[in-house]
Automatic annotation (TrEMBL):
Reactions mediated catalytically: DNA(n) + a 2'-deoxyribonucleoside 5'-triphosphate = DNA(n+1) + diphosphate
EC number, as in UniProt: 2.7.7.7
Organism: Novosphingobium bradum
CDD domains hit by this protein: AAA, HLD_clamp_pol_III_gamma_tau
Gene expressing this chain: dnaX
Source organism superkingdom: Bacteria
Compositionally biased intervals (Basic and acidic residues): 576-587
Role this protein plays: DNA polymerase III is a complex, multichain enzyme responsible for most of the replicative synthesis in bacteria. This DNA polymerase also exhibits 3' to 5' exonuclease activity.
Name of the protein in question: DNA polymerase III subunit gamma/tau
AAA+ ATPase domain ranges (all copies): 117-264
KW Calcium (keyword) present: no
Stored SMART domains: AAA
GO molecular function, one term: DNA-directed DNA polymerase activity
Similarity field: Belongs to the DnaX/STICHEL family.
Region feature (Disordered): 1-56, 567-587
Length: 626
C-alpha cells in the first residue's frame, strides 16, 4: 500500500490543509452561530463526493483535490451580514471627521505636539456629540505607531497600523473600556487599581475608558482618587459623562476637562447631506434641515432620524413608484411636525382674530396626525424667532424665502410687548395641553384665549397710560381748529388731534437724545393717537422707525404705529423749524416798529442783542446773531 495515503485514500498533507480553516470560513461560522445559518437555497449544493480508489496503485491525486468549491461559503457572510445603523457606520475614525469640536481638537493637537499630555481627560456634553468617540480617538492618537511601525503620538492616527485597527475594532488588550453604569462599586475600581501597576502589553500607553463615569458610587470615587492623582507614566484615564455636575470636585480637579458643545443645525444638515450622498439616497435640503432641528444638536439622534427617514422614503417610493427621495412632507409625517406654511397661517389667524380659521387649522392638523402639543410648540418657536429677528435687526434665519419674508414682516409690525404677551399665553397653554385629559380641546381653548387676548394691553401698560393722562392731559387733547374751520398744518392731511410739541416734551423726559432728534428732524404729516406719519428734515441723520415707536410707547403707555411718508407728501415744519420761523418773524416785527427803526437810523451799524440772562425760565438759549 502506498505510504502517501491513509486508509481512506486521503493525503495527510491535504488533511492538514483542510483542518486550517480560512478567515472567511471562521467569519461564516461566527455569523451562523449568532444570526442562524443562511438560507439553504442561497448556498449552492456541494458536488457529489468522489469515490475513494480501491487499489493502492491508483492514488489519483487530482481526484483527491476535489474539494475545490470550498470558497463558495464566502458568499454566505455577505448575505447574512447584519445591517449597521448610520450612527455606527459613520462613527468618526479621525479627528478631522469629528464635527463641531474644533477647540478641543486644537487643544489636543497642541498638547501632543508639545508633549504636554495630561494623565486624565474628562469629556462631557449632551448625548450624541462624540464623547466616547473622542475617547477612542485619543486612545488611537496616543498609541499609533504609523504604517512603518516607527511613529509616535499624533493628532492624525494612520488607521492602518495594528494598534489603530485593534482599537477601532474594540479588541486591543491595552485599551480597556468600562461601563460605569454596570460597574459601580469599589470592587470594580479595585481591579483597575491593581492592574495599573503592570506595564502595557503591546501599546505605548495602557488606557482606561470609563463611560458614564458619574454612575460610580461615592466609595468607588474615593478609592480611585489616589491612583487618579498619581498614576504610573504608562497609564491614561479617559472619562465620559453627560452629567458632570454629579462628579465630585476632587475628581474634576484631577482631570483635564473638555466640554463638547452641541452641533449647530447648519453643520448637522451639511453632515447629513454628505452621508446621503455616500449612501446614494437623494434628499431635499429642507428635509435635512428639519431633521437637523429635530436632532437638537445631537449627531447620533440626527442619524437615527435620518435612518428612519430613508426607510420611510423607501416604503413611500415602493408604494408610489418614486425614487426614494427624502422629502419635507415625509419627514413631517414621520415626526408628526406641523407644516411650516400652516404654522404661519395659524399665527396670522391668531393676530387677525379669525376664530373660525384657527379652529379649522387645528382640526386639519390633528386629522393629519400632528399632536396638539407639537402645534403649540411650533407657535412658540415661531414667536421666538420673530422676537429674535426684531431685536437683532439682522434679518430672520429661515429655511425658505417665504418664511424669512413673513418673519421679517411680523418683526417690523408687532410691538415687543405684544410678542412677549403672545409667548406667555402660548407657554401657559402648552403646560395646560400637556396636563389635560383631552389635548385637542385644551389646545383649541388655549389658542382661542390667545386670539382674544392678543390685542389687549397688559396691566402695566394701562397703568402707564392712566398716569400719562393724569400728568399731562394736554398731550392727548385735540389741536384747536384754525380760523377757516380747517385743521392746522399745510393741508387737511396734517391734522393733528394730538399735541405734537407736548408729546415730544414727554419723550425728552425719558430719552433726551431721541426727543432732541424728534424736535430737530421730524416733520409731521399725520398724527393721531397711536399713529404717526412723518418726514425727515433733509441733511440730518436718519431715525429708525423702531426707535421712534419705542420712544412714543414709553412716553404714552400705548402702542404706536410709525411710518415714513414719501417726499412729495405735504408736512408741517419740524418743531425747531417752526420755532426758528416764529423767532425770525418776531425779530422782523421788532425791526419794523417805529422806535427801533428810528434808533437804527440814528446809530448806523447798530445791532439788536438779546439779553439771554433775561430769557424766561425753561426756554432754551440758542445762539443767535442779529
Amino acid at each position: 500500500m502506498d505510504d502517501s495515503s491513509d486508509m481512506f485514500g486521503t493525503d495527510p498533507a491535504d488533511e492538514a490543509a483542510e483542518d486550517r480553516a480560512s478567515a472567511a470560513e471562521l467569519e461564516a461560522a461566527g455569523q451562523s452561530s449568532m444570526f442562524g445559518a443562511p438560507d439553504p437555497a442561497a448556498v449552492p449544493p456541494a458536488p457529489p463526493p468522489v469515490p475513494a480508489p480501491v487499489a493502492a496503485s491508483e492514488p489519483a491525486p487530482a481526484a483527491v483535490a476535489a474539494p475545490a468549491p470550498a470558497p463558495a461559503p464566502a458568499s454566505a457572510p455577505a448575505a447574512a451580514q447584519p445591517y449597521r445603523v448610520l450612527a455606527r457606520k459613520y462613527r468618526p475614525q479621525t479627528f478631522s471627521a469629528l464635527i463641531g469640536q474644533d477647540a478641543m481638537v486644537q487643544t489636543l493637537a497642541n498638547a501632543i505636539r508639545r508633549d504636554r499630555l495630561a494623565h486624565a481627560f474628562l469629556m462631557t456634553g449632551v448625548r450624541g456629540v462624540g464623547k466616547t468617540s473622542t475617547a477612542r480617538l485619543i486612545a488611537k492618537a496616543l498609541n499609533c505607531v504609523g504604517p512603518d511601525g516607527q511613529g509616535g503620538p499624533t493628532i492624525d492616527p494612520c488607521g492602518v497600523c495594528e494598534p489603530c485597527q485593534a482599537i477601532a475594532e474594540g479588541r486591543h488588550i491595552d485599551v480597556i473600556e468600562m461601563d460605569a453604569a454596570s460597574h459601580t462599586g469599589v470592587d470594580d475600581v479595585r481591579e483597575i487599581i491593581e492592574a495599573v501597576r503592570y506595564a502595557a502589553v503591546s501599546a505605548r500607553y495602557k488606557i482606561y475608558i470609563i463611560d458614564e463615569v458619574h454612575m460610580l458610587s461615592r466609595n468607588a470615587f474615593n478609592a480611585l482618587l489616589k491612583t487618579l492623582e498619581e498614576p504610573p507614566a504608562h497609564v491614561k484615564f479617559l472619562f465620559a459623562t453627560t452629567e458632570v455636575d454629579k462628579l465630585p470636585v476632587t475628581v474634576l480637579s484631577r482631570c483635564q476637562r473638555f466640554d463638547l458643545r452641541r452641533i449647530s443645525s447648519a453643520l448637522l444638515a451639511e453632515h447629513f447631506a454628505r452621508i446621503c450622498a455616500e449612501e446614494g439616497v437623494p434628499a431635499d435640503p429642507e428635509a435635512l434641515a428639519m431633521i437637523a432641528q429635530a436632532a437638537e444638536g445631537s449627531v447620533r439622534d440626527g442619524l437615527s432620524i435620518l435612518d428612519q427617514a430613508i426607510a420611510h422614503a423607501d416604503l413611500a417610493s415602493h408604494a408610489e413608484g418614486g425614487e426614494g427621495r427624502v422629502t419635507p412632507v415625509q419627514v413631517q409625517d414621520m415626526l408628526g411636525l406641523a407644516d411650516k406654511s400652516v404654522q404661519r397661517r395659524l399665527l396670522a389667524a391668531l393676530l387677525d382674530a379669525d376664530a373660525p380659521a384657527v379652529l379649522e387649522l387645528v382640526e386639519a392638523q390633528f386629522t393629519l396626525g400632528v399632536e396638539p402639543l407639537a402645534l403649540l410648540r411650533s407657535q412658540m418657536e415661531l414667536v421666538h424667532r420673530i422676537t429674535v429677528a426684531q431685536v437683532s435687526r439682522s434679518g430672520a434665519k429661515a429655511i425658505s424665502p417665504e418664511e424669512r419674508a413673513a418673519i421679517d414682516e411680523w418683526a417690523g409690525k408687532l410691538a415687543a410687548a405684544q410678542l412677549h404677551r403672545l409667548w406667555q399665553l402660548l407657554l401657559k397653554g402648552f403646560e395646560e395641553v400637556r396636563a389635560a385629559p383631552d389635548p385637542l380641546v385644551a389646545a383649541q381653548m388655549a389658542l382661542l384665549r390667545v386670539l382674544h387676548a392678543a390685542e389687549l394691553p397688559d396691566p402695566g401698560q394701562l397703568a402707564r397710560k392712566i398716569e400719562a393722562l393724569a400728568a399731562n392731559p394736554a398731550a392727548f387733547a385735540p389741536a384747536a381748529p384754525s380760523a377757516d374751520g380747517a385743521s392746522g398744518g399745510p393741508s387737511g392731511s396734517a391734522a393733528a388731534p394730538v399735541n405734537w410739541a407736548a408729546l415730544v416734551e414727554r419723550v425728552e423726559h425719558g430719552s433726551p437724545m431721541l426727543g432732541a432728534s424728534l424736535r430737530l428732524g421730524v416733520r409731521v404729516v399725520a398724527l393721531m393717537p397711536g399713529h404717526l406719519r412723518y418726514q425727515l428734515v433733509p441733511g440730518l441723520a436718519p431715525l429708525a422707525d423702531g426707535d421712534i415707536r419705542k420712544g412714543l410707547d414709553s412716553a404714552t403707555g400705548m402702542t404706536w404705529q410709525v411710518e415714513r411718508a414719501p417726499a412729495e407728501a405735504e408736512a408741517a415744519p419740524s418743531l425747531e423749524e417752526a420755532r426758528a420761523a416764529a423767532e425770525g418773524e418776531a425779530r422782523e416785527t421788532l425791526r419794523r416798529s417805529p422806535l427801533v427803526a428810528a434808533a437804527l437810523a440814528a446809530f448806523p451799524g447798530a445791532e439788536l442783542i438779546e439779553d439771554e440772562a433775561a430769557s424766561p425760565r425753561g426756554e432754551r438759549n440758542w445762539s443767535r446773531s442779529a
